[in-house]
């Protein structure tokens, strides 16, 4: 799991080299209400149109939208579409576009006609030459790419099979990157994964994976088996198979497969969703995220992308809303009774979300509490905080406590974005609550040992883990109360 804020800050310091097939994406939106009298074809009454940077250029846009710098190398023709793309990329402050011009080919252009009312694609028209670049253009591409490797933290190859990523270009880039210790992510198009040999991570979709491995890929086990064989051929460290509404499965060469389900979302347009996933993986891995954290961030980014129309980018604020959805609820909406908890737990488990738990009195919230709560949220997808009731605190802490009543304490906790739900319990310990929740992670401060943590047996029996967080020295509610009552600053 990961700390979203820490990841976001780290992403801002990263630079990604993105190489691939640049396209001009046009979307023509309108209403269809009749059939043409000239032929049995629908007539679209055009209402508006949009022009976007597409293909690998959309990957670059997503990298920049997420806050990282991007050096982008692509190919255009000597035409109006190419000029439009050059001007559009020049407006992106975080993208440094190094475009090679090939006068022998058109700039790849795709025009999609979309029914505004039904939000469905009716027709797509393509202008392109889907053929490998000539030897002379290959050399220009390689000569442009290789000097940039020393400037970047990670390399991303976005292959749309339009001619930029020839076998020669791929080989030169991967070999040079490996010599400099740079990781390479490939969003592949070729069914021959061997041409990407030596890359760190390959990210085929299910259709591409089935074609390349000749496997059914109809279960996580079958995907993992076929991926292990494919990784030997491709000599890569991991393979990620994206499966649309069925989520994503990442198979590390050394380690257990990781499957993350797709987040529930109203799908409006899947155009460019793969670009968003590749971009998110690149910036997250460059920023130091592990496989699972990068995968979960990519899943959240994909959910944002498909909820938008057209070729869309994802911003950190949109990603935050998807990763921390309860951060944007009013505090009172996060406070639930234990009797109301089961419905929420069932919904989260249906989504295969990882549920975490921590507890305490939280009488006067201080930096030590905030550190533990933030760290606890980083271990899971949803964090539930058990809060001792007023009667429970009085029994544990003595007369004069709590300083604040349970409602006030619950509202302060619920106001924190790290907290998804607050549940008040009457007992002296949260054992019954832990049994009800059966969390995947049980988090406490490092002033406990694992055996001292209430509920550790329950969590272990359900396959979960107990995580102890180093506490901040010098922060204690009891000492704060004593100092306040004695008049000390």
Task: Write the SSE topology.
Elements: H1 4-11, E1 15-20, E2 22-35, E3 42-55, H2 56-65, E4 69-76, H3 80-90, E5 95-101, E6 109-115, E7 120-127, H4 135-145, E8 154-158, H5 167-179, E9 183-187, E10 201-202, H6 206-213, H7 220-234, E11 238-242, E12 248-252, E13 258-260, H8 273-286, H9 291-306, H10 316-323, E14 335-336, H11 341-350, E15 355-360, H12 367-377, E16 382-388, H13 390-397, H14 406-414, E17 421-425, H15 431-437, E18 441-445, H16 456-461, E19 465-469, H17 477-486
Parallel strand pairs: 1-4, 1-8, 2-6, 4-5, 8-9, 9-10, 10-11, 14-17, 15-16, 15-18, 16-17, 18-19
Antiparallel strand pairs: 2-3, 6-7, 11-12, 12-13
Helix pairs in contact: 2-8, 4-5, 8-9, 9-10
| Number of separate structural domains | 2
Instruction: Give the fraction of residues assigned to helices.
Output: 25-40%
Mean pLDDT: 90
Strand percentage, roughly? Answer: 15-25%
End-to-end distance: 38 Å
Task: Walk me through this protein's architecture.
- This protein is an alpha/beta fold and 489 residues long.
- The chain folds into 2 domains: 4-323, UDP-N-acetylmuramoyl-L-alanine:D-glutamate ligase (3-Layer(aba) Sandwich), CATH 3.40.1190; 326-486, HUPs (Rossmann fold).
- The chain contains 17 helices and 19 strands.
- It has helices spanning 4-11, 56-65, 80-90, 135-145, 167-179, 206-213, 220-234, 273-286, 291-306, 316-323, 341-350, 367-377, 390-397, 406-414, 431-437, 456-461, 477-486, and strands at 15-20, 22-35, 42-55, 69-76, 95-101, 109-115, 120-127, 154-158, 183-187, 201-202, 238-242, 248-252, 258-260, 335-336, 355-360, 382-388, 421-425, 441-445, 465-469.
- The strands form 3 sheets. It has a 9-stranded mixed beta sheet, sandwiched between helices. It has a 6-stranded parallel beta sheet with strand order 14-17-16-15-18-19, sandwiched between helices. A 4-stranded mixed beta sheet has the order 3-2-6-7.
- The longest helix is centred in the middle third of the chain and has 16 residues, at 291-306.
């Amino acid at each position: 799991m990961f700390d979203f804020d820490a990841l976001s800050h780290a992403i801002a310091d990263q630079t990604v080299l993105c190489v691939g097939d640049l396209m001009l994406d046009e979307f023509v939106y309108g209403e269809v209400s009749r059939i043409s009298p000239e032929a049995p074809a629908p007539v679209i009454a055009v209402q508006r149109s949009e022009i976007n940077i597409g293909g690998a250029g959309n990957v670059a846009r997503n990298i920049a939208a997420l806050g990282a710098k991007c050096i982008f190398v692509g190919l255009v023709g000597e035409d109006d579409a190419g000029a439009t793309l050059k001007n559009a990329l020049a407006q992106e402050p975080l993208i440094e576009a190094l475009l090679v011009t090939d006068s022998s080919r058109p700039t790849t252009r795709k025009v999609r006609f979309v029914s505004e009312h039904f939000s469905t694609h009716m027709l797509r028209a393509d202008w392109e030459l889907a053929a490998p670049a000539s030897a002379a253009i290959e050399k220009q591409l390689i000569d442009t790419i290789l000097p940039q490797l020393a400037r970047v933290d990670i390399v991303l190859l976005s292959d749309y099979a339009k001619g930029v990523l020839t076998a020669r270009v791929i080989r030169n880039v991967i070999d040079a990157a490996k010599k400099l210790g740079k990781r390479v992510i490939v969003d592949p198009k070729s069914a021959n994964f061997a041409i990407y040999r030596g890359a760190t991570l390959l990210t085929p979709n299910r259709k591409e994976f089935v074609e390349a491995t000749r496997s059914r890929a109809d279960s996580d086990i079958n995907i993992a088996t076929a991926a292990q064989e494919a990784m030997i051929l491709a000599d890569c460290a991991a393979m990620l198979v994206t499966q649309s509404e069925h989520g994503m499965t990442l198979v590390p060469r050394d380690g257990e497969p990781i499957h993350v389900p797709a987040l529930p979302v109203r799908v409006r347009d899947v155009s460019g969703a793969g670009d968003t996933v590749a971009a998110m993986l690149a910036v997250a891995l460059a920023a130091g995220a592990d496989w699972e954290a990068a995968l979960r961030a990519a899943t959240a980014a994909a959910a944002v992308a498909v909820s938008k129309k057209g070729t869309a980018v994802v911003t950190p604020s949109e990603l935050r809303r998807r990763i921390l959805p309860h951060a944007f609820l009013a505090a009172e909406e996060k406070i639930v009774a234990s009797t109301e908890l089961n419905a929420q737990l069932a919904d989260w488990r249906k989504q295969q979300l990882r549920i975490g738990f921590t507890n305490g009195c939280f009488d006067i919230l201080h930096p030590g509490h905030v550190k533990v709560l933030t760290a606890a949220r980083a271990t899971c997808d949803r964090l539930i905080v058990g809060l001792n009731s007023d009667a429970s605190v009085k029994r544990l802490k003595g007369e004069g406590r709590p300083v604040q009543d349970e409602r006030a304490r619950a509202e302060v906790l619920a106001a924190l974005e790290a907290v998804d739900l607050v549940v008040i319990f009457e007992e002296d310990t949260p054992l019954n609550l832990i049994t009800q929740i059966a969390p995947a992670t049980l988090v406490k401060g490092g002033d406990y040992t694992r055996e001292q943590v209430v509920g550790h047996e329950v969590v272990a029996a359900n396959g979960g883990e107990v995580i102890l967080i180093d506490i901040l020295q010098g922060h204690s509610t009891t000492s704060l109360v004593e100092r306040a009552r004695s008049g000390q600053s």
